[in-house]
Amino acid sequence: MNLDIREIPFSRFGSYFCVSKEKDSEEIYIRDVHGGDEAPSKLFKLDLLLGGVEKEFDILATETSLRFYLVEDLGKYAEIIIPEEDELHIEVNGVEVRLQASKVKYDTLHEYDDGMYEYHIYPKELKLMLSRCSGEMAVDAPWNVIGNEFIDIRMKNGHFVIESYRTVFKPKEYTNFAAGKEKVEKLYQEWFDNMAGKDEVYQASIDRAAYITWSSIVHPHGLLKNYAMYMSKLWMYNIWSWDNCFNALHLGRNYPELAYAQLKIFIDTQDESGAYPDFVNDKFVSYNCIKPPLFAYVYEKLMEVNDYFKDVDRLRTVYESTKNITQYFDLYRTYEGRLPHYKHGNDSGWDNASLFHQGLPIEAPDLASFLIRTYDILTKFAGILGEEEEAKQFKEKADAQFALLMERLHDEKGFFGRVGKDAEKIDIRSSLILRLPVLIGYRLDTKVMDQLVTDLVENFETKYGFATEMPSSSFYKENGYWLGPIWAPVTYLLVDSLKSFGYSKIGERISEKFLKLTLVGGMAENFDPHHGNGLVDTSFTWTSSVFLELLENSKGERLHA
Q1: Is the pTM of this model over 0.90?
Q2: I need a labelling partner for 281 at 20 to 30 A (CA). Which of 35, 209, 221, 500 fits?
């Protein structure tokens, strides 16, 4: 694959290093994604010089190496690889690489040893060792009382390494560039063979999705106790609850330990109230927003594809954790006689959807449906684990919540929400979020389900799938985030529900539309429903995971047809 590093950063499995090009300025930056997307990520701006003069260069980027070569002389270049998770190697031939640090007040660089410089980056609590294995390295970093005024590093005709660490540098012998390049190529090929495969129609999308999922993983560090798949290394470099579930879903077939680790990130950081964090990174856990429970839904599917997940101890861990999140909604998100509520649009994951335009808190049918589905699955899990009394209690809870859903949030027109302390009926009904009760299609009367599906097809289906806001609505916005664009996780939930509850042809049609959409818009965070162009973050893992999962499922269906 010829990688466009404006859209997909160059990185590798396990590394916090990445390299990307700014879309507006076209500047190249070596970056680091420790600390999540609110921490500064830019380390060095990279340029090529000849005789001290900046030169125009082109980029040849593959999944495993990144080469910058002079337009006027292709034999003069600098190449980057990441052979080890915390090591970025640069080979320079016939040209000079200039690295200009994106430093702040207290950032400091000093000479550590001959041909070695240590760089302490204060806001990231991170240190780098810049080492010359061969060639020439010159550093201009004038001192000014509490930090360097600027840092300018030049590298010529040799092999150089940037290694990151938190506290103490441990000297080592670095592998030579050719051996390092061969190593990372083998690592990626193994991942690709296990995760993707070949397809005449969708090969371009497979190549993107396989690389994005592989390169977006970071190694255990700080609060992260296992390998974790970030949503992206472009802009949204955190692990969000909900998003992580879709990534775990596709990892489950061939990388079950890694899939389970994505769930464990949130199980291990679950608050004593039962709430999962909104997001986690190596330095920070945020409980600002609490997403609907999805773990049980995903874990049930994982059990279907790999016996690893049937292990009693793992099932017990997920079961107990899921019990706790349901208790959180019972105790802290439910007013007496009502259904659980959202305190912000971000709680739902549908941040700015039209359902949330009249105020808060919101009783929403999607949240009730997630909880009902969760209670039903917990009933099944409790039976497997021999918890017969708890199985009975979960069944009763699901029945009661379903009855309340149909009483409070459904009328002859379909589902709606309620807002505020008086739980007033919301008259805005144009968001796709109100159609998510298809998740409990197995409980709905045929008439209700038929009405839901007809509504989906007639009012939301577009050239590329279901828009998140009715295109005919006054709230619809082009590039409106949750006010129109298509999103991968919602598509997966709707496709799965339609295919599971008697509407297979429609589900297969929407699945096929989404697969085709990725050929137009790549693996973006979301997509224009009419034109298919990718929007916002263009290198997103849950989009990649959903694409690969839907493609895998469609292949299975074709084989059994």
Answers
A1: yes
A2: 209
